[in-house]
């Protein structure tokens, strides 16, 4: 795994009250299962495939998860902290890099076609990732990922039109803050 070393302190201004989610991302807290973010990044791909309670922590949203009722929900304050803190955004970028590795995507040139040949739960995860990246200040990363997915859909002929429409909505939709 090729994470970039965080050149910035992940701590935020002490006057800001951190949520459990932002503490997790600042590497000063753990998720509901007691895991540090770095411990999740180091898990193997089988873990990423079969464990279903980490994705909501790595890529949080405002709306509740249908699969993990204990998942954190983004607040306006969380979004402000993510956008204001380069260290936290850096860790979000590392989560995204790990997710791309799990999908077998390398520099948007090669990918694991098995991930895209048939509808699967990872397609739902992709929608979550696109939305989360946009909400939390990594719009350019979301746009680049979307362009890759567009190629997979339009050029390679993989991914259903219906599923692709969710990804398009995830990047085109209005982001409320």
Summarize this structure as a short list of keywords or feature phrases.
177 residues
Question: What layout of secondary structure does this protein have?
Answer:
Layout (H helix, E strand, L loop, with lengths): L19 H6 L11 H5 L3 H6 L4 H4 L17 H9 L1 H17 L11 H4 L3 H15 L3 H16 L6 H12 L5
Helix pairs in contact: 8-9, 8-10, 9-10
How would you characterize the overall build of this protein?
The protein has helices spanning 20-25, 37-41, 45-50, 55-58, 76-84, 86-102, 114-117, 121-135, 139-154, 161-172. The model is unreliable at 7-15 (pLDDT under 50). 31% of the residues are buried. With 177 residues, it is mainly alpha-helical. The protein has one domain (20-172).
The low-pLDDT segments are: 7-15
Say how many strands there are: 0
Straight-line distance between termini = 33 Å
Summarize the amount of helix as a percent range. 40-55%
Strand percentage: under 5%
User: Count of helices?
Assistant: 10
Computed over alpha carbons, the radius of gyration is 16 Å
Mean pLDDT: 89
- How many distinct domains? 1
> Major beta sheet, specifics?
none
């Amino acid at each position: 795994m090729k994470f970039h070393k965080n050149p910035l302190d992940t701590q935020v201004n002490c006057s800001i009250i951190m949520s459990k989610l932002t503490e997790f991302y600042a590497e000063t807290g753990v998720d509901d299962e007691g895991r540090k973010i770095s411990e999740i990044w180091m898990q193997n791909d089988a873990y990423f495939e079969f464990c279903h309670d980490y994705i909501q922590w790595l890529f949080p949203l405002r709306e509740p998860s249908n699969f993990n009722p204990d998942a954190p929900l983004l607040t306006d304050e969380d979004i402000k902290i993510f956008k204001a803190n380069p260290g936290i955004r850096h860790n979000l970028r590392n989560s995204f890099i790990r997710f791309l590795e799990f999908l077998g995507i390398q520099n948007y040139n090669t990918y694991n076609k098995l991930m895209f040949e048939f509808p699967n739960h990872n397609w739902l995860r992709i929608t979550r990732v696109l939305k989360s990246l946009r909400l939390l200040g990594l719009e350019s990363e979301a746009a680049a990922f979307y362009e890759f997915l567009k190629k997979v859909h339009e050029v390679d002929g993989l991914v259903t039109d219906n599923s692709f429409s969710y990804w398009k909505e995830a990047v085109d939709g209005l982001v409320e803050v």
